[in-house]
Amino acid sequence: MRNKILNTFLVLLPFCMLSCTNLNTLTEDIRNNKEKYNELAETVYKCDFSRFSYRQNIGNEYFPKILVDAINQTNLKDKVECIGLYKSPYCENTSFNLYLNGGEYQIWYDPCPKDNTYKNEEKMDEWRIDNNWSITKHYR
User: Fold this and answer.
1) Using an 8 Å Cβ cutoff, are 46 and 66 in contact?
2) How many helices (H) and strands (E) does the chain have?
3) Which of 111, 116, 115 is closest to 87 using CA atoms?
4) What is the pTM of this model?
5) What is the 3-state secondary structure (H, E, C) of 22-84?
6) Chain segment 41-71, per-residue pLDDT in tens
7) Are 93 and 71 in contact (CB under 8 A)?
C-alpha cells in the first residue's frame, strides 16, 4: 500500500511542479515586461467586439489579427483560448480577462487600480500582480 501511494505521488509531482512553474513564469513575465502587457491591454480596447455582449466568452477564432499579434509578443502566445469583457467592479470602465487552460487560469486586467492582494475563496485563488493585472486559478 505504501509503495502504491509513493508511486502515485511520484507520478503526480511533475504535473504539480509544471503547473506552479507556468504560473510563476507568467506572473514574472507580466511584472518584467509591463510595457508589452499594457500594449496588449490597449490593443484589446482598440478591437471592435461590439457584436458580443458583456460576460460573453469570445473565442480566439474571433480575435482580430492585431490582438493575436499583441498576444504573440508575450508569454501568452498560443495559450489564450478566449477573452471576456466585463464592467469593472471598481469604476465605470471595461475590464477583461483572458482564459487559459480551459478556464482554469484567468488573467484579469482592470483599468481601475487596486491594491496588491491575495484572495482565497472557496473554489478559486486570486493573486494581484500589480495594480491592474491579476491571475486567478479556479478549482473544479
Assistant:
1) yes
2) 3, 7
3) 111
4) 0.76
5) HHHHHHHHHHHCHHHHHHHHHHHHHCCCCCCCCCCEEEHHHCCHHHHHHHHCCCCCCCEEEEE
6) 999 999 999 999 998 999 999 999 999 999 9
7) no
